[in-house]
Design a protein that fits this description.
Layout lengths: L2 H6 L2 E5 L7 H5 L3 E7 L8 H10 L9 E6 L5 H19 L13 H21 L6
Antiparallel strand pairs: 1-2, 2-3
Length: 134
């Protein structure tokens, strides 16, 4: 993944933020909406796109567009910076390949101990029975 190349493929849109904030909210478009078209990306390989489709399926639209919003700050520039960092982190996490699990054998000492414990418990229960005097 080439971060600089991906950043050129992002599209930003400034929107008026919702919620409390008084007159500033009504006048200034400080909320930033980032959108990234996964299918059209030249920076990602086919394998990387497939991983993104699998891991970020819940976050993608039906057209395979990843949309992120940020209205944490009053500054449009800071919001753009925050949403860009968040986007790169999400993409990096999606492209991490999990380590393959290696199947391990149960050690023979553990098997022997389990069988020994079963025999011990069996003896304890056998000794609790009423004696048979026949």
């Amino acid at each position: 993944m080439d971060a600089e190349k991906i950043l050129t493929e992002l599209s930003f849109k400034a929107v008026r933020s919702s919620g409390a904030g008084g007159q500033n909210v009504n006048k200034v478009s400080s909320k930033v909406v980032l959108s990234f078209r996964v299918n059209d990306s030249q920076a990602l390989t086919a394998e990387e796109k497939e991983m993104i489709f699998l891991k970020l399926a819940a976050r993608l639209t039906s057209d395979n567009i990843l949309i992120l919003n940020c209205d944490e700050d009053r500054s449009q520039l800071k919001n753009k910076d925050i949403v860009t960092r968040r986007f790169l982190e999400i993409i990096r996490k999606a492209l991490v390949k999990p380590k393959e699990r290696k199947a391990t054998k149960i050690p023979k000492a553990v098997i022997r101990k389990r069988i020994k414990d079963k025999k011990t418990l069996s003896e304890v229960k056998k000794n609790r029975r009423k004696p048979d005097f026949d």
